[in-house]
Specification:
With 363 residues, the chain is of the alpha/beta class. It folds into two domains: 11-174, no CATH class; 200-347, 3-Layer(aba) Sandwich (Trna Endonuclease, Chain: A, domain 1), CATH 3.40.1350. It has helices at residues 2-8, 10-56, 66-79, 85-97, 115-119, 134-140, 146-159, 163-171, 174-179, 184-193, 223-232, 234-241, 287-304, 323-330, 349-362; strands at 207-209, 245-256, 259-269, 274-284, 313-320, 336-343. Strands 1-6-5-4-3-2 form a six-stranded mixed β-sheet, with helices on both faces. The N and C termini lie far apart (81 Å).
């Protein structure tokens, strides 16, 4: 009888199974969220115990502390995995770098691990986020710069990065690439709040990094091949472009009179509410490339935009650019047109760190 009822109400039964499945999935996600949050707060408290023990005795607060060696062996023997020496180093650092609420121990202000505070002792300590789990913090704490740590914490929250995405952004030196286009106040702002997209300039990086394409630096390639690889790696490309980009079309056709032009890549930016056109150049950007993008923007503004769309944005991306030529080529252009570089390999970390330090010290 029960089987007959189920067969007669097949659609309702399938809906029931679906509802139960959705509920279970939500419950498991909430449980994982709670467990991760408790684990991070527990690690913060453990870090607090370690630091307070060091400060109460003769131990020096440094990475080479013998205390961590002994703790690792004893805690692993008692409680199993999770207490390797490297894990304890980051657990201890979690407490030193982050605050868990508005009450922060004053005696930690001069800790030797937080290089960022030697530059900006007035900069507030980053706050633990309930949305990040230990895997995120383990990666973020590999940095010794408070500004960088705060930026990646905020950006992980805003863009819901996975640990894999976070690692990619840190390896590509995203914070430094964004910070170098700003003044001291701008650097402090993105460190405290993350990257805010308020105007077209906020989506432009000093250079875009396409290391995910796997093209060796000296390999010869055509512009069409670069475009093809970007489309095949669209998820990574969108991550590099940043929040808000939605892919529209490749080789977007622009008919003008008896001629057809094509812009390499067309996107729509959901936050800025406008089209973003990208043209790729294999070598150095020429003044004609800038003029051509200006033509595309004029077409989109008059023929494609609706009443609800804002002015379109054009980005010419090349392997090299002559800053003086670009300055003159952009002069008197009223459209929102930007010229930037791309590189096929990860940027040099030490060089970018030195440039950022020089910017901060000059301001």
């Amino acid at each position: 009888m029960d089987t007959q009822i189920i067969s007669q109400n097949g659609n309702h039964y399938n809906a029931l199974v679906g509802q139960i499945g959705d509920l279970l999935q939500q419950g498991r996600q909430r449980a994982a969220y709670v467990v991760n949050n408790i684990l991070v707060q527990t690690y913060w408290q453990i870090g607090k115990y370690i630091v307070e023990f060091e400060q109460g005795g003769s131990e020096k607060s440094e990475y080479g502390s013998k205390l961590l060696d002994k703790l690792s062996k004893d805690l692993t023997a008692l409680y199993g995995r999770g207490f390797s020496r490297s894990n304890l180093i980051y657990i201890r650092k979690l407490y030193i770098v982050y605050q868990i609420n508005e009450t922060v121990s004053n005696k930690l202000n001069d800790n030797p691990l937080s290089i960022g505070e030697t530059l900006f002792h007035q900069f507030p300590k980053p706050v633990l986020s309930e949305r990040l789990h230990w895997g995120h913090y383990f990666q973020i704490l590999k940095s010794d710069n408070d500004l960088e740590i705060s930026f990646y914490t905020r950006q992980c929250e805003k863009e819901n990065w996975s640990v894999r995405e976070l690692k990619r952004q840190m390896n590509s030196m995203l914070f430094h690439r964004l910070a170098l286009s700003k003044d001291k106040e701008g650097v402090l702002a993105i460190a405290e709040k993350g990257a805010e997209i308020m105007q077209p300039e906020d989506i432009i990086k000093d250079s875009f990094v396409f290391e995910f394409l796997g093209i060796p630096e000296k390999e010869q390639y055509l512009e069409g091949e670069l475009e093809e690889r970007l489309i095949k790696n669209l998820e990574s490309f969108l991550l590099e472009l940043g929040k808000g980009f939605a892919f529209v079309k490749r080789q977007y056709r622009i008919p003008l009179g008896n001629r057809n032009f094509k812009v390499d890549l067309a996107f729509y930016h959901i936050i800025l509410k406008c089209y973003v056109l990208i043209d790729l150049k294999r070598g150095e950007i020429e003044h004609g490339d800038i003029g051509q993008m200006n033509l595309y923007l004029n077409y989109f503004r008059k023929e494609v935009n609706t009443e609800t769309d804002n002015e379109p944005i054009g980005i010419v991306l090349g392997a090299y650019k002559d800053r003086i030529m670009v300055e003159y080529a952009l002069d008197s252009i009223n459209n929102q047109l930007f010229v930037s570089k791309y590189q096929l390999f990860l940027p040099d970390k030490k060089t970018l760190e030195k440039e950022l330090e020089r910017l901060i010290e000059k301001s």
